[in-house]
Design brief:
Layout lengths: L1 H14 L8 H4 L4 H22 L1 H9 L1 H24 L8 H17 L6 H23 L6 H22 L9
Helix pairs in contact: 1-3, 1-8, 3-4, 3-7, 5-6, 5-7, 6-7, 7-8
């Protein structure tokens, strides 16, 4: 129930104004960098929402969990590298070094913690959230004074979703490798 609530909150947050009256669900499709670095995380969050609200999609994720988990980890690591590279080069359109570092520490700690807990298929929803968490946290730290209601709703949904997924993984048996 908690996961469905988090999914609904995230869905509503993506449709509300985030910053500068831009809605993430519609406003990130303007330039190639924004599509790659913000659009892909938005798609990951949409996939998380659909995973929790449409049972056949969750069953698909369960069947193909190992491959999806590997792909999503690559997406997360790619986002982390790109955000860090843009922050180090001081690109003015993207969050600075400290906000990106905060986002990578928070999401990276969660990524490392979940290793070996449950099967890879049970970890897919959490990795979807982590992909969406990199820009959400980085922009929240960078633009904390200019955030609109959508940003706060997305962050609340993200925190609730991560909490719910961590509760699921916490009770899973530890798997040394594979899974």
């Amino acid at each position: 129930m908690l996961k469905k609530l988090a999914a609904l909150i995230l869905a509503v947050g993506l449709c509300l104004p985030y910053s500068c009256d831009v809605r993430p669900i519609t406003g990130v499709w303007t330039t190639i960098p924004s599509i790659l670095f913000v659009g892909v995380p938005v798609l990951a969050v949409v996939a998380y929402v659909l995973h929790n609200l449409i049972p056949p999609l969750a069953a698909f994720h369960e069947r193909h969990g190992q491959r999806l988990y590997a792909i999503l980890r690559l997406v997360y690591l790619g986002l982390a590298i790109v955000y860090l590279a843009y922050a180090v080069t001081k690109n003015t359109d993207w969050p600075g070094l400290l906000p990106v570092a905060a986002a990578l520490v928070v999401t990276g700690v969660i990524l490392v913690w979940q290793q070996g807990r449950g099967t890879k298929a049970t970890r897919v929803p959490l990795v979807l959230l982590l992909c969406g968490g990199v820009p959400a946290i980085a922009y929240a730290v960078e633009l904390h004074t200019d955030l609109k209601i959508g940003a706060w709703v997305v962050l609340a949904g993200w925190v609730l979703g991560v909490f719910a997924e961590l509760q699921v993984l916490r009770v899973q048996p530890t798997i040394a490798h594979g899974g």
